[in-house]
Amino acid sequence: MRSARDDQLVRPTVEDEVAAAGSELIGGPVGRRALIGAHWWTPVRVIALMAIGMFALGMVQKLPCYDHGWFFGATTQYTHACYSDIPHLYNGRGFDQGLIPYLDRIPQSVGGGMDYLEYPVLTGLFMEVAALFTPSAGSLQHREQLYWFVNAGMLLACTAVIAVCVARTHRRRPWDALLVALAPAFALTATINWDLFAVALTAAAMLMWSRGRTVLSGVLIGLAAAAKLYPVLLLGPLLVLCWRAGRLRAFLTAAGGAVAAWLAVNLPLMFTHDATGFHIREGWAKFYTFSQARPVDFGSLWLFISERTGDPLNDVNVYATLLMILGCLGLGALALRAPRRPRFAQLAFLVVALFVLVNKVYSPQYVLWLVPLAALARPKWRDFLVWQACEVLYFLAIWFYLAYNGSGDKHQGLPTEAYQLAIVVHLLGTLYLCALVVRDILKPERDVVRRDGSDDPSGGVLDGAPDIFVLGSARRERHAEPSEGTRVAWGTGSHDA
């Protein structure tokens, strides 16, 4: 049964000083008698339209490249910070020739050493669908431009899905999705690659989980993992949180749906058969073998260490895997020992951020993975904008660094030392937001989402569930009877055995 409080939307201009200051541009903070959503302009529609508008501005930012910067090795795509993989891979992965991903080998003359498409299956399908909608007439340059436009249209639809899903995940906090809609790094990186497809599926999975639809949530996680690897990490937080709440059946249902969905889209391309039997298809496995063999690359902690020490870090896979395992164990301990069960969005953000921080490459568009999770985990404008400033700085730095190395003797752009500093700024910005989320978990009374007595608005079956398995101080607190004031401040159920 929903209470009257559930229908009262949280107004960011009331609880957030930065949002209140920013609202002065459009007339000031909302009044007590304002009718929110009384007409067509509901919060979800406003947020979706603002996300579409910001996406359009991101497309405008790519105009210098659309005219000529993507072609003939021009450094304009770096000096104007408008690079995109999309037009380059139209020819570079054989889409202009009608090659079928994972089945047809890419000619050496166009693949640049890549014999098969190095993306997961659903991303490959996304790219193939865009290629089918791209007209085949005209010059290669013209078709590459059209291919980028077709993909941009499809990614725009993904952006709208992300905005709507984030706005609806917390029923009383739709305006938190403005963080996604207005995120500058989101707009700047949206059309670099195809990551928004996986981000949209992940956002939809979190929305379904918040509604208690565990099977569909798991299916969407599996589909998202078939488009990009990182969404599978969400199963870790779900396992720990369901364990603490004694709801393992919900986790097993979601995990089963994820495995089934992933297999459903991968199995048709996974195996090939010849006279000697069944074998893993080389084209399907390319994403995994390429990820394994890829050396230390741009934007990562490991590149900074390698360049500063002169060590090529040939064992970086071992180092990164060990750090990821240790980090996940630490997050598991945090979830089980915290005085109150963490919110799903908090742990989801932390585990994906951990993956980003220890990965051996950090492409600028990886920030897209974190933006929706950050908006749900810690919807505070000041901290979000501090992090976004660090990401925008890195976005500019990577292109100016490539311009510096690609402009011959002119050296237009950033030298190595300045680029290394930008890497450090990016890492520190992400760590800053992670530290604040961890603080909110350890001191739940400081969590802005829980100030009104909510437990876990995006938690689905976990929202308001009692603690069953806890460790350390959380175990002692679970057996302590909270005072009436504590029950009011912290909501109901989360500390009751």
Protein described:
The chain has 497 residues and is mostly helical. It has one domain. It is built from 24 helices and two strands. The chain has a two-stranded antiparallel ribbon. A hairpin with a 2-residue loop joins β1 and β2 (277-280). α14 (235-245) packs antiparallel against α15 and α21 packs antiparallel against α22 (416-442). The longest helix has 30 residues, at 140-169. The two termini are 22 Å apart. 48% of the residues are buried. The model is unreliable at 1-6 and 479-497 (pLDDT under 50).
Observed structural traits:
DUF2029 domain-containing protein, 497 residues, disordered C terminus, two-stranded antiparallel ribbon, transferase, mainly alpha, single chain
Give me a quick take on this structure:
This protein is mainly α. The protein has one domain (4-17, 41-490). 61% of the residues lie in helices and 2% in strands.
- Specify the helix fraction band: 55-70%
- Beta-strand proportion: under 5%
**Low-confidence stretches at least 5 residues in length (pLDDT < 50)?**
1-6, 479-497
- Shape annotation: globular
Structural category is mainly alpha
How many separate domains make up the residues? 1
How would a textbook summarize the main sheet? Answer: 2 strands, antiparallel
Order of helices and strands: HHHHHHHHHHHHHHHEEHHHHHHHHH
Q: Give the quaternary arrangement of the chains.
A: single chain
- How far apart the termini lie comes to 22 Å
The count of β-strands is: 2
Give the overall pLDDT as a whole number.
88
Strand numbers in spatial order across the main sheet: 1-2
Radius of gyration from the CA trace? 23 Å
Keywords: Cell membrane, Membrane, Transferase, Transmembrane, Transmembrane helix
Family: Belongs to the glycosyltransferase 87 family.
Organism: Streptomyces luteoverticillatus (Streptoverticillium luteoverticillatus)
GO cellular component, one term: plasma membrane
